[in-house]
Amino acid sequence: MTAPHSTPASAAPRVNPLQRLWLRELGMERLWLRPAPPAVAAPAPQVPVLKQDFSTPPAAAAPVPDAVPAPTDTLRPAGPGLRNGPPPKPAPKAEAAVEAAPAPMPVAMAVKHANLDELREQVVACTACGLCGGRRHAVFGHGGQPTRWLVVGEAPGEQEDRQGQPFVGRSGQLLDAMLSAVGMSRERDVFIANVIKCRPPGNRNPKPEEIAACSPYLMRQIALLKPERILVLGRFAAQTLLGTDATIGSLRGRVHQMKTDEGREIPVIVSYHPAYLLRSPAEKARAWQDLKLAARV
Ligand code: URA
């Protein structure tokens, strides 16, 4: 399945089909994609980070489980410009209008020209959805470059929120064991990221509007890292990246293709989330099949 990117209307921000879908779901498509209001003079907002020019083997013997400790178990830098939502009203005309104020920028535009370091700064400063209020750390992601595999999970849990690193709790230990079973190292070959960069309270499921607000960061990570393939873990990551509401069971076992903004096709392999595997160890055999598929693509 592909996730092609369409070309938006002339002056409207560029959004990919996934972003458009979420915007539609939120009832914001028309507002969001409306051409920006003409800039008029107003006090310049403080935008310190952003650029102003606007961007489980086998049914018989799987190595996955036993290598793991037994399951006991906008960017909007503090300013008004980047929160996901309808475009703000045009600023009132100043009496002596000498300079045009920069138009507020949605996350999708802010990330457009960011390099990886800039993107990380944007994520750390992001206030695009309510999750920023409860986080200790935003979790940008971590891994090696060049990136052979991009592994995409759902959202940080408690340990990840504490440490600011992805998959460092029990799920992460299982993930490391799964990866090493196919010869992949977290530090050397793999970049690990999540759809949502901030922990949802009590590890609840991410809300559609949170996914919509955060997914431009993931899309930009994909564009910058140019992974050879993407392993998506769990329903939220699979549905977000493939633009579908299909179940994991129906998506795993085959290779999907995701098309980037640059027209590059990246093979996408879907598997179960490690947290699910910890609760349902019998599924590790299937996860092992998925990993072997990813390894031979
Ligand atoms: N679960 C996830 O989906 N991501 C993490 O980083 C940790 C747990």
TrEMBL record:
Region of interest (Disordered), residue spans = 55-99
What the record says about family reads: Belongs to the uracil-DNA glycosylase (UDG) superfamily. Type 4 (UDGa) family.
Which keywords does this chain's UniProt record carry?
A: 4Fe-4S, DNA damage, DNA repair, Hydrolase, Iron, Iron-sulfur, Metal-binding
Main EC class of this protein?
hydrolase
A single GO molecular function term of this UniProt record: uracil DNA N-glycosylase activity
One Pfam family, please name it. Answer: UDG
Name recorded for this polypeptide: Type-4 uracil-DNA glycosylase
Q: Which NCBIfam families match?
A: UDG_fam4
Q: Where is the composition biased (Low complexity)?
A: 56-74
Superkingdom assignment: Bacteria
**What is the E.C. number?**
3.2.2.27
* One Gene Ontology term from the biological process aspect of the record: DNA repair
